[in-house]
Design brief:
Elements lengths: L1 E5 L2 E4 L4 E8 L5 E7 L6 E7 L5 E3 L7 E6 L4 E6 L8 E8 L13 E4 L3 E6 L1
Parallel strand pairs: 2-11
Antiparallel strand pairs: 1-3, 3-8, 4-5, 4-9, 5-6, 7-8, 9-10, 9-11
Length: about 120
């Protein structure tokens, strides 16, 4: 699966951004968003199952971020509201390989990754 992430930028605390992840190629079970801040490990943000639309969120973004999909455009969106400086990171989308031994929160669950898009939230 080829993934193209876009939509990052610089925003003040309390502001909003919408990220997009356009997918092409073979089919996939779902798409997840992860983020990585400087000096930190890549962490799970949210996930959406492609066929049923079920979603999972990290506690740190629950109630502020919303993941959605457009099945026709093969695109996943991440609407980020009430942004905080600690949301600053490079955001990556990734395709779920469907290895059900692992949680959707686990990196190993994913096989293809987008190039990442920078989100910077100023205080």
């Amino acid at each position: 699966v080829q993934l193209q992430a876009s939509g990052g930028g610089l925003v003040q605390a309390g502001g909003s951004l919408r990220l997009s992840c356009a997918a092409s190629g073979r089919t996939f079970v779902g798409l997840g968003w992860f983020r990585q801040a400087p000096g930190k490990e890549r962490e799970f943000v949210t996930y959406i199952n492609w066929s049923e639309g079920n979603t999972v969120y990290a506690d740190s973004v629950k109630g502020r971020f919303t993941i959605s999909r457009d099945n026709i455009k093969n695109t996943v969106y991440l609407q980020m509201n009430s942004l905080k400086p600690e949301d600053t990171a490079v955001y990556y989308c990734a395709a779920d390989r469907g290895n059900y031994r692992y949680s959707v929160r686990a990196l190993i669950r994913y096989g293809d990754w987008g190039q990442g898009t920078q989100v910077t939230v100023s205080s």
